[in-house]
């Protein structure tokens, strides 16, 4: 065998495989197309039949014959052009014209029955409502569309035989199925109960008849709905409105159902909406792909009303459960934030974080911090003259001003005891300027008290004491937490306050040493400090 002959045989084998693939694609497309008018025949006839049976109309028997013929056509198409037969090679596609004639023969009686009974009922239009006439026209047109689709299969086979020997002919044949092949390539690339209450549903289908049938079913079930002709329109609608369920066709122009589903699942604001895929395709892998990509359910065309109702009901319930879960999570988030705010009112944020992480015993030593004690002068006498409510409001107003000042300066309020106030600087996060921060705190407290006194009938005084040194800090309590300080530096700061003078800030020698280059002081001299003897102290001026 010559090299040229071998190459020719290889080329011929490749062309034969391409021809076979073209036939498979074409049959898959026509199988889909044939089910669309069948869906219309069955859907409209059942809608009319339900109304006729409810009203005990005499033409119900003819409608039943139309519906029966539609179901018979669906069974024939499913059997003759099944995906299993195409994939297994059981379906002989070597002569497409002959295959088309076979399908025409098998469907002829059913098509004739549909057209005949529809025409007879249309002729009796005086007995029918206007809407029923329109539905019967849809049925008749759909049956006649079946004939055109079968002719397409026969024409494909005839054209294939006539043009197969020329390069131009092959190009023409290729263009006939280009759109379908492109769709299949996209699919290959993407291979990866009754409702308690009506829902708002988005219906996405490029076929007007399908949209009409489904919309009437949805309306009958009490749902509200909006419609789109392709995935692009659907995404635009779903971003502007809120939907409970999306009914999404697979094969559509512009953007098909797989592409739309992929984009829906990738959007964190939309991925929670249940999606039911719709298609006349009967391939098992179509269902699998939809579920793998995130679809919640799948419905084949034509639609069984009971199954449609059940699937929508199930998806609505799923959506409501998801919404309820989000509400619970949001409520938990709010409650958690409230709990954290309460915890931060008691503990410094770093300490609160350590407790939340499970640390049970928190105790730390700090070598250099500055502690401030303050005590209101004259508040006890004032409190005996006013109501309890006014007393608390008054104290809260002043201490709230102190709290804001502490936050602004980055110092930690430790606690209040009656009308006393305690603050520390330099922990739980060490600060090199802890003494300067505390000096600013003390001076700010004096200013805040002046503002308070201007609006109060009984002016108050305040003693403030500050000391610097080492402390131990930790959390005590199990049901009621408290962050507190211990050590000699704390005791001396308390003594600086108790031995101080109203309206003045008394500081120890250790604090003075850190601040004398930055602030003005007035030496007080030595004073007697309980448990410490005589100590040199100073008044912070400004």
Please provide a brief summary of the model.
The protein is of the alpha/beta class and 542 residues long.
- Radius of gyration (CA) equals 43 Å
β-strand number: 13
CATH topology annotation of the largest domain: Alpha-Beta Plaits
The number of helices is 18
- State the major sheet: 8 strands, mixed
CATH architecture field of the largest domain: 2-Layer Sandwich
Give the class-level CATH name of the largest domain.
Alpha Beta
Explain this structure to me?
It is a single chain. With about 550 residues, the protein is α/β, with parallel strands linked by helices. It folds into three domains: about 190 residues, no CATH class; about 130 residues, Rossmann fold, CATH 3.40.50.2300; about 190 residues, Nucleotide cyclase, GGDEF domain (Alpha-Beta Plaits, 2-Layer Sandwich), CATH 3.30.70.1230. About 60% of the residues lie in helices and about 15% in strands. The protein is elongated.
């Amino acid at each position: 065998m010559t090299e040229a002959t071998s190459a020719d045989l290889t080329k011929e084998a490749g062309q034969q495989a391409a021809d076979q693939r073209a036939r498979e694609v074409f049959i898959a497309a026509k199988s889909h197309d044939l089910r669309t008018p069948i869906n219309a025949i069955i859907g409209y006839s059942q809608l009319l039949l339900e109304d006729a049976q409810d009203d005990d109309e005499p033409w119900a028997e003819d409608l039943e014959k139309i519906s029966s013929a539609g179901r018979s056509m669906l069974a024939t198409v499913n059997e003759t052009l099944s995906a299993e037969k195409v994939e297994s090679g059981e379906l002989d596609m070597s002569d497409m014209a002959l295959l088309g004639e076979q399908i025409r023969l098998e469907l002829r009686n059913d098509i004739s029955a549909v057209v005949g009974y529809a025409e007879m009922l249309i002729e009796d239009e005086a007995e029918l409502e206007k809407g029923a006439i329109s539905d019967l026209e849809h049925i008749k047109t759909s049956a006649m569309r079946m004939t055109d689709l079968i002719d397409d299969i026969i024409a494909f086979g005839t054209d294939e035989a006539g043009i197969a020997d020329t390069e131009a002919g092959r190009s023409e044949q290729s263009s006939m199925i280009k759109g379908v092949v492109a769709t299949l390539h996209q699919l290959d690339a993407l291979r990866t109960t009754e409702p308690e209450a009506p829902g708002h549903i988005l219906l996405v289908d490029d076929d007007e008849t399908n949209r009409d049938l489904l919309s009437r079913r949805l309306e009958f079930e009490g749902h509200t709905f909006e419609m789109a002709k392709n995935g692009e329109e659907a995404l635009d609608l779903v971003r502007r409105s809120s939907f409970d369920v999306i009914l999404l066709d697979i094969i559509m122009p512009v953007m098909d159902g797989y592409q739309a589903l992929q984009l829906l699942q990738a959007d964190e604001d939309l991925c929670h909406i249940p999606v039911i895929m719709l298609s006349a395709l009967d391939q098992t892998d179509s269902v699998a792909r939809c579920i793998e990509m995130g679809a919640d359910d799948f419905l084949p065309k034509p639609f069984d009303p009971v199954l449609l109702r059940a699937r929508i009901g199930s998806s609505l319930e799923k959506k409501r459960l998801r919404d309820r879960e989000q509400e619970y999570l949001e409520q938990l988030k709010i409650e958690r934030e409230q709990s954290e705010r309460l915890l931060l009112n008691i503990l410094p944020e770093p300490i609160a974080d350590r407790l939340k992480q499970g640390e049970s015993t928190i105790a730390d030593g700090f070598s250099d911090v500055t502690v401030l004690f303050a005590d209101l002068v004259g508040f006890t006498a004032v409190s005996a003259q006013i109501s309890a409510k006014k007393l608390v409001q008054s104290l809260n107003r002043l201490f709230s001003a102190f709290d804001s000042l502490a936050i602004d300066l980055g110092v930690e309020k430790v606690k209040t005891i009656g009308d006393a106030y305690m603050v520390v600087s330099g922990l739980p996060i060490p600060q090199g300027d802890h003494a300067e921060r505390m000096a600013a705190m003390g001076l700010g407290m004096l200013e805040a008290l002046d503002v308070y006194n201007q609006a109060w009938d009984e002016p108050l005084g305040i003693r403030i004491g500050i000391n610097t040194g080492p402390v131990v800090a930790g959390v005590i309590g199990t049901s009621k937490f408290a962050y507190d300080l211990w050590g000699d530096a704390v005791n001396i700061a308390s003594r600086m306050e108790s031995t101080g003078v109203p309206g003045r800030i008394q500081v120890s020698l250790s604090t003075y040493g850190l601040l004398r280059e930055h602030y003005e002081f007035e030496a007080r001299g030595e004073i007697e400090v309980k448990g410490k003897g005589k100590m040199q102290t100073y008044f912070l001026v400004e």
